[in-house]
Design brief:
The chain is of the alpha/beta class. The protein contains twelve helices and eleven strands. Helices cover 37% and strands 11% of the residues.
Length: 395
Amino acid sequence: MAPLLVDIHTHIYPPSYIALLSARTTTPYIAQPPPPTPTSPLPAPRLIILPSDDDPSLPPSARGRPIDASYSSITTKLAFMAQHSIATSIISLANPWLDFLPPATAAATARAINDDLHALCAAHPGRLFAFGTLPVSAPPPALVAEVHRLATLPRIKGLILGTTGLGAGLDDPALDPLWAALQATQQLAFIHPHYGLPAEVFGPRAHASGHVLPLALGFPLETTVAFVRMFVAGVFERFPRLRVLLAHAGGAVPFLAGRVDSCVRHERVGAQGRGKRDVWDVLRSNVWLDGVVYSAVGLRAAVEAVGRERVLWGTDHPFFPPVGEGDGGGEWLSVRMNVEAVEGAFVGDKDGAEGVLGGNAVRLLGLELGGGGVGERSAGGGEREEDGEKSEDAV
């Protein structure tokens, strides 16, 4: 029997978010390029979410990336899941979330989008759950209030958070009320990159390789820096029961944790006020890593850093779609690579592989599966399923 697949790293832009981006003209936004000729069909809209995407030297049809139904259609999401025998997905709003909103509208927008996500999941019981999003630009009381509200929504299993926090990073003391609320509600914070590294790091020829340098290096290193800043600032000392999931197997965290530990132990500045927890204790008590790393080598490092029960499988859908002739409707290479990474890292350890592919997520998030979809199996520990009609794209 094929192992249970639970996808904890899979994104969607619900219709309300698509409308929000389509109404904007500065990053982030969705642009509709003009047709090349008056009689040509309209090109696909372009998603401009990174500052480097909005390069005025490029024609509008070459900026960002084309956006299709896979970004917003729950029907397409479910078809992708069925195609790859994924039993359950924990969907989340993709970057840049709500970081760009003015404080006056952030809280109401977050509530609306979180309600959209919850409704999508309720329409497909056992198949879909979600990580909520936060109004990070709103006043702190509104931010904390939304954390507590999310904890009351049975389909919401945590929240997704960028690395900038309120604008000064995740080590900002002003975020302590957020960490306190997450600790009190025991919700998982999925920490995900967006801003990467400064463009000059990649040099003047970066555009020649498209998104390779920002995505392969910028995103993982952004996550690495964010986590280490939290650690050295004592966030996990102040909130010892805080639970975080780091995207992309934690970036370079598994490889660099020993160096972080050594540097902390040998640093004189601030030694008197330093906490007692080392980075390995935090990694094995507070941290989970996703398995979106595409190789057995990277996955083994993740397992060594946090333990096999703390690594969770994901796809990063709808990003990294097939490219090349004939690839549009077949198996996604990115999915196969992440499954093969688990298989390669757990040769001879069937229980370990099955845990990463799905069992760990079921136990961590208390998922109750079994809505009649492909590959679904019953599992205890989740909330009670609700009755109701299933809809496809309506919320």
